[in-house]
Amino acid sequence: MKSGLCVSILRFFIFILLSASLINCWSNPFYKPPVECLGKINNTLCPKEDSLGFFWSGILAGFLYAENAVTISNLVNYSIVQSGFLVGKALTPSVYVSLDDAPGTLVSVDGISSWRYQLPAPAVTGSFWKLGTKHKISVKAVDAFGNAFGEKIVNVIKGNNRDTNGDGFADVILSVSPSNSVVGYGVVFLSHGDTGMPSSTPDSILTDGQAGGTYFGDRISAGDFNGDGYADMLIGSQAYPAFGTIGAAYIFHSAGQNGIRSQNLQSGGSYNTMIQGQNGGERLGSMVLGGDVNNDGYDDAILTSPWISVGYIFYSQGSSGVPSKNLGAGALADIKHLGAADNFGQTSSVGDINADGYMDLVVGAPTFNSNQGRIYIYISNAGVLPQTPQYLVSPNAQCPPGGGCSYGGSMIQLADFNGDSCADLATTAQGYNTNRGLVFVYHSNCGSANPFSNLPNTTLFGPALSTCNAGNNCSFGASMSAGDTNGDGFADLIVGAYQSSANFGNVYLFQSAGTSGIANTDLGSGGSAVAVLGGESAGLNFGIFSVLQDVNGDGLSDILVSAPDPIATGASQAGKGKVHFFKNTPSVGPGNQNLSVGGRATATLTYSNGLSFGNSIALDQIDFFESNVSFLFR
Questions:
Q1: CATH, residue 489
Q2: Contact at 8 Å (CB) between 137 and 119?
Q3: Any residues with CB less than 8 A from the CB of 477 and at least 6 apart, and which?
Q4: How does DSSP classify residue 538?
Q5: 149-200 pLDDT per residue, tens
Q6: pTM score, two decimals?
Q7: Domain range holding 189?
């Protein structure tokens, strides 16, 4: 605080001296040159003949600003952009921000030397960045005389917006699992750039207030559905109405810099969108996902029901977001896709597989061909998804028909693992070899027809069965997430195995080697991961959900791992469950951290209400789906 005050006083003092000496000069602080001059565009509006003014302002720049004239606080080179805003610090009255070498914008610096700039958002700026595209950001300090200097440049990749309050940092969005007698919740822990940590208690709490088994919050996602640059929340309620099986999904918009306001729908709270299912047994909201399918810059709502193998897409209508609809009352989805009684829709993901600028869709169907499993691939045609998909069936050598592999069942992830700007496909087969589990990674050939070979580029085998729960269940692949953990611009992968290590659970980090992607690894035959995280006690389901997300804005995807703790039942389980936050470092991620033998998480989140805190964490897609009726209505 004292050093900042001294700098401010010094700046003011020199400013007054130079103002007095340069009155009538071009560099007079009461005259600012046009913005074109700041971008170094040659024209007659940018005078160059005032050598005295440039001499003094040059001294001022060198004396006060040097290397730290301007900083970007929430992005570094190769960052994945998970906010609608660019934020930073500056020692000058303003900064000049340019995107992709286009003419930029002059942004004022506030009284505490902070600045904030809105990135493209269709409802505000009239433009937008497509998911997965690469962009250049340039920021220059601008002094009181209009001189721009101290340029900072970062090259970034557009990711999913997870910043609910627009402070530049992706927030932690997760749920507290309901049961047939306990209220469910969706909660937001804001991330704080000054500490690099999420809040210790929830900043936003959403609930339907019903203790009658609606399963509100059983599945959760996020997206910018109204295009204002702030992340909104999409929450599934698959047992709506209470003890029912029709299902519903809700969208809650951000209130801008106030974030998503807490709401209790039983006590006067409100939602922005409610979509209700069509028939009993549908359980709409079993899987929820936000993504821009029709390429208008607004995220759409993707809802599927594996129970009846159906998927729906509801388009955003612009700044008003996705409209409410009751399918049971005759309303129609914008797009409806049907599977073949194969649990179509148990998982899904969006990404640009062929690099044509449009989002494609992949959907898992794990019970196809007696639990062999397959994946439906919908390649967009200029923003329109085809009714007839392409298919990808698991390699027979690892997952033969009837083998119970459940290929495509637990997780699907589209991400660029080899750096060619085309989204590659990672999918799990948790049921392989009596639930030992494995993961396949397929590199896209960037084509529209058959973009993935039938043979994977990478196969990751889970740990040996003998080391897992009861010697026959590892559940490797129960969760999976992609992100850049070492800042090299290539997507890495974490894989959860919540019953490995004698049921303590593990999460494994596999990093890309560059253009060759992630190397083949067999954890049961001497292979190893870059880092391994271990649970603190047996039976807590550590790793059943795991997410890569840059919480602190340093360009490295950090790791969030839930341990929902399903051991206790009834009232004794209230408040059970934890979500562990592991901060990544450039070389080895968080390092090996075994919580049962002295390993440490960077922070641990808890919540006092509900059941199984951390039941779901918002990601590009929902991480896990449970089709066991006894589980849903325990």
A1: 2.130.10.130
A2: no
A3: 410, 411, 428, 429, 430, 437, 438, 439, 462, 495, 496, 497
A4: T
A5: 999 999 999 999 999 999 999 999 998 866 655 788 999 999 998 888 999 9
A6: 0.87
A7: 162-348
